[in-house]
Amino acid sequence: MHEALRLAYESSLAFRRGLPDRPVGARATLASLRATLGGPLGDAGQPPAQVIADLVRHADPGLMAEPGPRYFGFVIGGSSDAAVGADWLSSAWDQNSGLYATSPALAVVEETCARWLLELLGLPERCGVGFVTGCQMAHFTCLAAARHELLRRAGWDVEQEGLQGSPRLHVVVGDEVHVTVPRALRFLGLGAGRMVRVPADAQGRMIPSELAKTLQHLDGPTLVCAQVGNVNTGALDDVDSIADACALRNAWLHVDGAFGLWAAAVPGMRGALKGIERADSWATDAHKWLNVPYDSGLAIVKDARAHRAAMTVAAAYLIQQEGDAARDAVDWVPEFSRRARGFPIYAQLRALGRDGVAALIARSCALARRAAEGLAAIPGATVLNEVALNQVLVRFTPPDGGDADAFTKRVVEGVQAEGTCWLSGSTWHGLGVMRVSISGQDTTEDDIDRSVAAIRKVVGH
Ligand SMILES: *Cc1c(COP(=O)(O)O)cnc(C)c1O
Hints:
Elements: H1 3-18, H2 30-37, H3 48-59, H4 81-93, H5 104-121, E1 128-132, H6 135-153, H7 158-161, E2 170-174, H8 180-187, E3 196-198, H9 208-216, E4 222-227, H10 239-249, E5 252-256, E6 281-285, E7 297-301, H11 304-311, H12 342-376, E8 381-383, E9 391-396, H13 404-418, E10 424-428, E11 431-437, H14 445-459
Parallel strand pairs: 2-3, 2-4, 4-5, 5-6
Antiparallel strand pairs: 1-7, 6-7, 8-9, 9-11, 10-11
Helix pairs in contact: 1-3, 4-12, 5-12, 6-8, 6-11, 9-10, 12-14, 13-14
Bound molecules: pyridoxal-5'-phosphate (PLP).
C-alpha cells in the first residue's frame, strides 16, 4: 500500500541527509539527462513505485543542492523540515484552495498567517494579503490593485473598461528595478517601455531627490516602484524619503521587497527600512529568505478594498462567503484553483517564532559580512558592495594584471565545477562579478570558511 509514497518519503530523507556532503552543483550533462529522462511516452503505464524510483535515480544527478548549506546562487533560500513537512501534507491533502468552501482549514491558516506576517514585518494590520506563486506574481497582484485604485480616482473602471481610452497612468521606477516589475507591467497592459527611470546611486538605491524632480514633471495618476534588497548589492532604497516624494503627488508607492523586506522582522535592522509602512503595497517571497519551499510569494496591499476589487471574481456556482465572514483566497490572488501554499508558511512561522525569523535573517547578514571579509583577503579580490544585507559582490584581478572580467568568469565556473559551494556571476555597473547570496537557514560559519577556502584555491592562491 502506498509504496510510491513510502519511496518518495525515504528518497526525500536520503536527499536531505546527503545535502552537506554532495557536490553542490549538478553532475549530469544536458545530453545525459535527456537520455535518461527523455524518450517517448509509452502506451502502457508503469507501477507508481517504479515511476518514483526511476524519477529519483534519473533526476538525482541533475539536481542542485539548493536547500544545502553552501548554495549561494541567485537569492535562493533553503527549506526547513517544518515547511517541507507541511508542503508534503498540502499535496497529500490535495485541497483546492480557492474558496473557504473548498478548504476551510486552509482559509483559516491563511488568515492566521496574514496576521502574523503583517505583525512580523511591521505593516498595517488591515492590509490585504495574497499567497501567490512568487514575487513576480506578487508584483502583478499589487500593481493590479494600484492600477484599479489610481484609475478609479481618475473616474475610470479598469476592470470593466480595460485600458483602451483610459487616462494615462505613469509608472516611475528606480534605474535598478528588478526585471519582474516591467514584466508585471507588460501583463497589466501598462507597457514595460513606458517606465520612467530615476537614477540610482553607486549601490543601486533610487535617489529620492531625483524622484521628486521626476514627479514634478508628471501629471495624473502615478505609480512609483521602490526596492528594498537590490538583487546584486542587497542595497535598500530610502523608502521614507521616497514616500515623502510620493505623498506630495498622491502617487501609489509599491515596494519590491522580494528578500529585503524580511529585514523588517529584525528589531535591530528596522532603521534600514524606515518608512516601510508608508508604502501602499509590498511584494515579497516566502520561498527565498523564509526558507519555505517553492512556490511561495506574498502580495500585500494597504487598501484591502482595492486589492480585492482588482482580483475578485463572481460566478453563480461559486460559494463565496458574505462580506468578511471567512476568507476566500480567490479574492486576493490571480489564481482560481491552487495548491494550499499557506500550510508551509504557517508551519515555518510556528517552527521559528518571531525570534527565530529575526535570528535567521540576522545570521545570514552576519555570514555575508564574514564571507566578504574572507573573500577580500584573497589576493587580487575586491568586494564591490557595501554588505547591507546578505549579498556580496566580488571581482578578481588575475596575478598578471590581465582582464578581470574574463578571469572572474573563469573563477565562477571553476568554483561551480569544484563543488564545495555554488554561486553565479553577474555584471555590476559594467564590471563582471561573482555574486554570493546567503539566504539558506542551515549555513554555518564553517560553511562560509570552507567555501572561501575553495574559492581561494580556484583563484590560485
Ligand atoms: C527574486 C526577486 C524577484 C522575483 O521573485 P520570484 O519569487 O522569483 O518571482 C523580484 N525582485 C527581487 C529584488 C528579487 O530578488
